[in-house]
Amino acid sequence: MKLLNKTASAAHTVLMLLAAGAGVLMLAFGVYVLYDIRYTGQNAYISQDLLQYRPKQPADEGGAETFAELHEINPDVIGWLEMFDTHINYPVVQGCNDLEYLNKDIYGDPSVSGSIYLSADNSGDLSDPYNLIYGHHMESGAMFGDIKNFLDADYFSSHNEGLLQTENGTYLLKVVACVCTDAYDSLIYNTSNDAVSASQTLRDYLAENAVQYSEFTADLHDETMVGLSTCTDAVTNGRIVLFVIAVPLNSEEAEHYMTLITDEVPADIIRRSPLGYFTDSDHWALLNLLCAAESLLILLPFTAVIRKYRQIPYSRKLLKKICDDTEDNDKDNDTNDKEEGECEEHEDEKTICKHLRRFIRKMYIGTILESILLTVSAVLFLMTEDLSKKMTLYDKWTGLMILIAAAGLFADYLTFRYREKLPEEETPQQRSYTEYIS
To answer: Rounded to two decimals, what is the model's pTM?
Structure first.
């Protein structure tokens, strides 16, 4: 029967641990999903670090040097696009195919928000009569998320200009149409060699089918047309395409329009916390976060924090009771001769008092030590990890974080476990206490 009870108790403990582990995993996954949504939305915006590489002069007056710096980051950069008074303000890249930068950022790292990229079928110098630039639709308004706003007539009429800077020249972008279509539109998504002959057909199509449309003026008919394409959640395979005319500017005109370019990240973007002082990496490690959380749970176990720290006042209370009884027995020894068994019991009580005093001191030391380790773990994590960056499994600080968490677990094991003897005649409360601390 005793073996059966122990087996049942062990099975119950295993099931509880499995349930707790599953709950922790589900919680961790939920937190990660929320983090990933926030990270993707926030980091889809242009960063201040990248914005400093934007050309501030026309290509023929020093802007080419800035493009050289951009090429050091990514040789596929072919220009910089901004639509004034919107969040559309990014470098433009061109891959070997139209899928290369769909889920890859300008640094070449995997990214859900991808990059702003020119169709692989177009010429990299934008010399084609029709060019197509792609970008993800982000609900936060980042990337090409603001293109949906051009479906509104007031927004369309008030946000009608932009700037496209390339190594070969600077272009003023004039908004002419906004179209709702699908990914299989063979006219809009035709950037092959026969697109030249279809240029006028496309213009006629826009005049008839655009949700918002601005009449083409006579002097713009021979200029380069650019389509800014993004997806929409409203329709499966739905697309919204903003059409602009790219008008080449001379140096003086380019300098004038460059006074309108945005030098700051939009004010509505949540600023990143100034963390990661000890590292220049562009990621943070999940294991480091878990180690910091483990250090917190060691000091403050959320399921047993009261039970853990109740040991201190209870041990003090038990020590006082035993010591008082010992003092009374000492007084009796002065007047009466005790039997051998009673003397042995008296010595046991003195030993228990000594053990309890040591245990109380160990618990105080353990509390202080665990608090120090938690502080070190938290400070180290905050100074080496930047949660605004992408997540990796581990980094060069992971070993130290694991060592700190292990030290906290070992300190807890040594200082909050009572393994010595207690009085033989125990109250139900003492028996419960003995079961816990043993």
So the answer is: 0.59
